[in-house]
Amino acid sequence: MSVRGIQNMAHMPELWRKLGWTFLLLLAYRVGIHVPMPGVNTAAMAAFFEQARGTLFGVFDMFSGGGLRHVSIFTLGVMPYISASIIMQLMQVLSPDLKRMAKEEGAAGRKKITQYTRYATVLITVIQGLGLAFMLEGMQSPNGAAMVPVPGTMFRFVTVVTVCAGTILLMWIGEQMTSRGIGNGISLIIFSGIVAGIPTALIQTYSLAGDGIPYILLPVVGALMLGVMFAVVFVERAQRRIPVHYAKRQQGRRMYGGQSTHLPLRLNTAGVIPPIFAGSLLVFPATLADLSQNPLLRNFSGWFSPSTVLYNVLYVGLIIFFCYFYTAIIFDPKDIAENLKKQGGFVPGIRPGDKTREYIDGVLTRITLWGALYISLVCLLPQFLMQYLNLPFYFGGTSVLIVVGVAMDFMSQVNSYMISRQYEGLLGKAKIKGRYGQ
Description:
By secondary structure, this protein is mainly alpha-helical. It has helices spanning 3-9, 13-33, 42-49, 56-63, 67-70, 79-94, 96-104, 106-137, 153-180, 185-196, 198-210, 217-236, 273-289, 295-300, 309-330, 333-342, 354-388, 397-435, and strands at residues 239-246, 249-251, 254-256, 260-266, 345-346.
């Protein structure tokens, strides 16, 4: 944001109020992270997580914003809500009734789907909360201390009730942040959790450099971190611009149209949604496996460790799938082609209507593949460096992609809000001027 933009913000009290709501709700979330669940040995969990980075627990802790590490009321974070959103979006594709409700019933239909998503969130939270209780009962710290001093039915009941209340509260905080503040509340919650873990990652990287890893690697890690961030920013801003011309048309004595513009298609249209959805889905089966006392089923969760080939293959596959799936939901080439035809616009060399739709769909399909491969590469880079090159690289992958993507989206919404308010001010002055005939 430019200096002029920052100066303009001083004259927009409504924007400052929205920003205040956003940061106040984020602060409430970060305070809740440090409110522990009853019946859990928090010291034993902290000792356990000293060795958990790069494992399934480390991935889960990243999406919960440190909630699992602190065994807090927000242990599950927003992952149940994300899983419920995935299910509802899939159901809208499979169910004609839900699809009609979303498109034809307008705000009332979207409100019903949001209500169904909340119900699904509670159901998923109950299942994951029960799995969390069983998992904690079977865990021990590196020195052999039990995570749960008094296991049993009462502990499982209290755990389910606690995480349900925490997840519902967190879901409400995210919705309030979206409606009262700036940006998407759920994305900002994940963003704040990752940013809060950056100091810990820096300290751990430095400590590893002192425990057998040469200090000369620290500049290398720093250069890689900056390189990944610059690459993410560059690709996130990349566009494929389709030229669009508008034919001249006469209305009365005036001629309209005749100008040329472009249709911008982002290389990564889906944003940070694919890695978030893919990560949450891969954690969910492992949680279900922990519900059983069967050794074979409990070993099932080990297959989904981030260090396994199966996890990485499924992760890439899910990222590619959700890139296409989410792009298809938020960008409909048929609607774009119809709107261009109604407004007299056309792509040079392409006939309006179905041919334009096919052309836009083809271009979008090709660039979405490259966007999906880019996301997969960024998300797998840290695991590859740590596992095969023994580099303590904790700043890439999903975390940097989410941080950069959410930060860019947040600043874009702030700029859009400022521009809209400036236009409203200009229109207001024009009305006043016209009213008095000056």
